[in-house]
Amino acid sequence: MREKYKKLPLRSGVGIVLLNKENKVFVAKRIDNPKNFWQMPQGGIDKGEDFYTAALRELKEETSITSVKLIKEIEGNFTYILPDNLIGIIWKGKFRGQKQKWFIMRFIGDKSEINIKTKHPEFLDWKWIDLENLTEIAVPFKLEVYKKLTPEIKKNLN
């Protein structure tokens, strides 16, 4: 990491592992990185917001989904650092990465509820994938987070 960015703080964020009734994981392709990388819904925390409220808000803002049931709040935090070419650009250059609290949720709505063409769209496309494929579709700088999440998700499948 370039020296001038080492002192930048980590952004506080949340992530959502959204499972359907077949235990497939919701992933979406970002508009700003249309290569073959997909990610789970995630985002920052607003001032005065708790983690769970932020997770529900981010899920709704990114996917229009509100019909969910909390399965588990995953213990601890997960951190990623942006690659050098993105530090100083993403988040107006204020952060070098993100420290996240993750939640596993079950989607209990109808497919018609899912709409990524939101007020401020972040995604081009979405799909449900098998948990085993999660680490194959992740952008490289989030790969370690997804590797650490996978066993936690497996423990909570029913």
Structure description:
The protein is an alpha+beta fold and 158 residues long. It has a single domain (8-155), classed as Nucleoside Triphosphate Pyrophosphohydrolase, CATH 3.90.79. Helices cover 19% and strands 30% of the residues. Strands 1, 3, 4, 5 and 6 form a five-stranded mixed beta sheet that branches. Strands 2-7 form a two-stranded antiparallel sheet. The chain is globular and about 45 Å long. The chain starts with 9 loop residues before the first strand and ends with a helix.
Q: Cα distance, first to last residue?
A: 41 Å
Structure class: alpha+beta
CATH topology: Nucleoside Triphosphate Pyrophosphohydrolase
Largest sheet: 5 strands, mixed
Number of helices: 3
Q: Report the CATH architecture.
A: Alpha-Beta Complex
- Unreliable runs: none
CATH class division: Alpha Beta
- Fraction of residues in H or I helices: 10-25%
- Considering the protein shown, what is the CATH homologous superfamily? Nucleoside Triphosphate Pyrophosphohydrolase
As a percent range, the share of strand residues is 25-35%
| SSE series | EEEHEEEEHH
Rg is 15 Å
The total number of structural domains is 1
Give the overall average pLDDT: 93
Number of strands: 7
In a nutshell, what does this entry contain?
With 158 residues, the protein is of the alpha+beta class. It has helices spanning 51-63, 134-137, 143-155; strands at residues 10-19, 25-30, 42-44, 68-73, 78-81, 97-107, 123-129. Strands 1, 3, 4, 5 and 6 form a five-stranded mixed beta sheet that branches.
